[in-house]
TrEMBL record:
Keywords, alphabetical: DNA-binding, Membrane, Transmembrane, Transmembrane helix
InterPro entries the record matches: OmpR/PhoB-type_DNA-bd (IPR001867), Sig_transdc_resp-reg_C-effctor (IPR016032), WH-like_DNA-bd_sf (IPR036388)
Superkingdom, taxonomy of origin: Bacteria
Organism: Rahnella variigena
Coiled coil: none
Full protein name: OmpR/PhoB-type domain-containing protein
Domain OmpR/PhoB-type intervals: 26-103
Membrane-spanning ranges: 125-146
Length: 148
């Protein structure tokens, strides 16, 4: 599911559009897909004592995470920090040496809006509907024919 989050009552992160913006200002940052996924994962685990590096890596790269370097994750986290700082949000998350990161205890995150993903496959429903309409029309035509 895609959500829109309100952070510290003044920043909005929209997972669908991958935008991070400061309310009541012109600051609007479009994140790359990778950074947006990483920020989403951090937000979803904001209550965790420590968000382990391996868990973030697994969430971002899946089974390929074994083959990605620690530097790739470090770079992604650095770029997210830079983007958030540009918007005015300093130290949303901090490094926990040799473990991972954790979201600052002073940070607040609220879900403003949760978007339900669109239905991917509507065809079986349409086929069933079409079949029912056809049967009803055929039945009506047959009934009218017999009445004559």
């Amino acid at each position: 599911m895609m959500a829109v989050y309100l952070i510290n009552s003044e920043y909005v992160f929209n997972e669908k559009t991958k935008e991070f913006k400061k309310l009541h200002s012109d600051v609007n940052i479009k994140l790359t897909s990778m950074r947006a996924r990483c920020l989403s994962y951090i937000i979803e685990h904001a209550q965790d004592e420590v968000i382990e590096k391996e868990a973030i890596s697994q969430a971002l790269w899946g089974s390929r995470s074994k083959f990605t370097s620690d530097a790739s994750l470090t770079q992604t986290l650095y770029l997210i920090r830079r983007d958030l700082k540009f918007a005015g949000l300093d130290e949303f998350f901090i490094t926990v040496p040799k473990s991972g990161i954790r979201v600052s205890t002073s940070a607040t995150v609220e879900i403003m809006e949760e978007k339900v993903p669109p239905v991917k496959n509507v065809r079986p429903w349409l086929l069933a509907f079409g079949f029912i309409v056809s049967v009803l029309l055929l039945g009506t035509a047959l009934f009218l024919t017999l009445q004559l």
